[in-house]
Amino acid sequence: MTNRIKAPHGADAAYTAFVEAAWQRQLRFALLLTGDRWQAEELLQDSLVRIYERWRRLSSVDDLQAYLRKVLVNNHTSIWRRRRRESLVAAVPERSAPDSAVSTDALVLRDALRALPPRQRAVVVLRHYEDLPEREVAAVLGCSLGTVKSQHAKALAKLRHLVGDAGENHLVHGRSR
Fold first, then answer.
1. CA 125 from centre of chain
2. Which residues does 98 contact at the CB level (< 8 Å), separation at least 6?
3. In 8-47, which positions are buried (b, 16+ CB within 10 angstroms) versus exposed (e)?
4. What does the alpha-carbon distance between residue 58 and residue 35 come to, in Å, rounded to a whole number?
5. From CA 160, how far away is CA 18, in angstroms rounded?
C-alpha cells in the first residue's frame, strides 16, 4: 500500500487554486488589520475556513477576493469585540525585535496604525492599501458612505498627530528619520 495524496477534484481544486492565488495579498491585508503576523495568519485561516464551508454556494460570487476581504474585516471586528475587555497577565509576552531592514518611518507608521480603533484602521487599510473607493469600503464594512468618510477623516487626523509626535520623539532622542 502506498501513501499517496490524491489531488483535489472539482470544487476542492477550485478552492485550492483560489487560496493559492489569494494568500499573499490577503495575508498582507490581514497583517495591516491586526498589526501582528501570527494574528493575521490566524485571521486569514479562519476566514478561509468560513469560505470553504460555503464554497459551493459562492460559485456565483463575482469577486471572491472582495468577498474574502469582507470576511476578513468582519472576523477581525468580531475578534476585536470578543477581546475588547482587558485581560491581565503575570508576565509580559516576549516579542521579537523589529526587523533592522524596516525603516524608522515604516515602524512609526505601523505603530500609529495599531493605535487606531479597528473600524478606523479598516477604513484606512481599505482606502489606501487596497485602493478601494469610498462606496466599496462602505459595502465591505456594511456601513454608510458618510460613516466611511467621517471614520477616514478621524483616522487621518489621528495618524497625523501620532506620526508627528513619534517623529518628534525620534529627533529628541537623537535618531533621525
1. 7
2. 107
3. eeeeeebbeebbeebeeebbebbbbbbeeeeebeebbebb
4. 29
5. 37
Dihedral sign from CA coordinates of 55, 61, 62, 67 = negative
**AA identity, residue 63:** D
Question: Mean pLDDT of all residues in the chain?
Answer: 81
pLDDT of residue 176: 42
Asked if 110 and 34 touch (Cβ cutoff 8 Å), the reply is: no
The string of pLDDT tens digits covering residues 80-131 is 776 666 566 677 767 655 555 567 777 888 888 889 998 999 999 999 888 8
CA max distance for the chain: 69
In order of 5, 6, 31, 67, the CA distances from 2 in angstroms are: 10, 12, 40, 39
Question: The dihedral of CA 44, 46, 47, 49: what is its sign?
Answer: positive
